[in-house]
Amino acid sequence: MRQRSGIDLLPIGEAEACQVHKLPPIHRDPFDRMLIAQAHCHGMVIVTDDAIIGRYPVRTFW
Q1: What pLDDT digit, counting tens, does each position of 34-56 carry?
Q2: Fewest CB within 10 A of the end CB: N or C in the chain?
Q3: What is the pTM of this model?
Q4: Separation between Cα atoms, residue 35 and residue 28, nearest integer Å
């Protein structure tokens, strides 16, 4: 299904793992913090209505 939809995997690498530890402790959810780190490292947009994520230096869309 993922491949038919043209969705690629985004592995968690060393840069993302290191970025998580540099984030201010605004958001407590570790999964969301990893998404924030990945978006930051790869210049991506996070599609969310979570206002807390919007307090980080990443682009969001909703």
Answers
A1: 999 999 999 999 999 999 999 99
A2: N
A3: 0.86
A4: 12
